[in-house]
Amino acid sequence: MSVTSRPAAVSFENRFAREFPEMAVAWRAEELPDPRLLVLNETLGTELGLDPSCLRGPEGVRFLTGQLLPSGSTPVAQAYAGHQFGGYSPRLGDGRALLLGEVVDATGHERDVHLKGSGRTPFARGGDGRATVGPMLREYVVSEAMHALGIPTTRSLAVVATGRSVPRETLLRGAVLTRVASSHLRVGSFQYARATGDLDLLRRLAEHAISRHHASATQAENRYLGLLQAVVEAQAELVARWMLVGFIHGVMNTDNMTISGETIDYGPCAFMEAFDPATVYSSIDVGGRYAYGNQPVIAQWNLARLAEALLPLLDPQEERAVDLATECVDTFSGQYHARWSGGMKLKLGVPDSLEDEVFAPLVAELLAVLQEDKVDHTSFFRSLGPAARGDAEASRGVFLQLPRFDAWLRRWLALHPDADLMERVNPVYIPRNHLVEEALAAASDGHLDPFEALLDAVTDPFHEHPGRERYAAAAPEGFGSYRTFCGT
Question: Pick the catalytic residue: 51, 94, 112, 255?
């Protein structure tokens, strides 16, 4: 593929690199000894105006790993700061990632094309800048599952094996992920700009975020307050959707919260199986800071850090700026609850008009009995469709406290739940942890069939297919306690 052939003929922009030289270090991906394409998202490639058949060729693979740059591409490592597990780091940045540039997709929206695992950058600190096959395929399958579930997310275009061994606990096969996002602007981007003391940089970054993601802020009396409110709304919607499907991000640092409202950085992520708000899978989250039930609280905490960064733009008087920011961030909990409650009504098939006096205790009782009996979150909600049609055997069969559940079931059935609606929102298939690990282990040994079969299931999550029963089943008892790792 030359720079004038079909895949690279799509014009790349270098908008971030051009507009924010203070936050962009020009850099190139490291050379790869033997790059081999493992998986390609042809549908996404087509959306970006790229030719999948060319992307599968040798020069297409070079393009996907930053070895061959299209016209207009200026690869940069982005600078940002962030709170990591509550501790502030003023200079993080893309230690093993590069923004190749922006493209305009088939719908007219600007999208980032970004590499992960492309080698050390000036932000790498002590890291080697590389990634391995397992974690990159994890991000691919989970991000595409989230997209299929209708949850805002970055997307995965490709994973390429590098032909290089990467030392972790053992030597592992190296890989590069090609990721697509509405942008890679993060709360940490604003923290970095604020820490420089350069008010012009902070203002330009805010204007960039408004023009790219939240144009509605231009209609607000205070456009920067309008930006903050738009991000609060986007994150309330996003985290509510996470909670409704049992998704646990695992590392909700401020550098992993986007301004766009997309899910980003699938490191130690997982889907909850037995319902329990205290569920933690990440090996590094020893205190449970980012447990499933803590995610809304942490999201609001992160938004408060964004508000602090924006204070000089909100009002010249600091006290007034703090009041405006506090009032705005305080709206998160109400917005989150409204979105979660609305989503839960869909999951239970009850009318949106159902009064809170009836709905709130109904849900509270259900969640209590789910937790007490350690019931699988995904399969239980899916089983309610048949229950609404008169066949409650599957839903009743998972409870030890059967009289308690039966009492709840009678109250719920009296509301005449809509089974068809429920089956449109309660998935059959999610990336179950034991299946993800099985697929990644096989792929690390060069066998991609299990990965591709899992990907096929989770990217069509709402329709049951004969022969896919194992993809809907909970982990076998022998799977044991589960831990995920960030991959670095």
Answer: 255
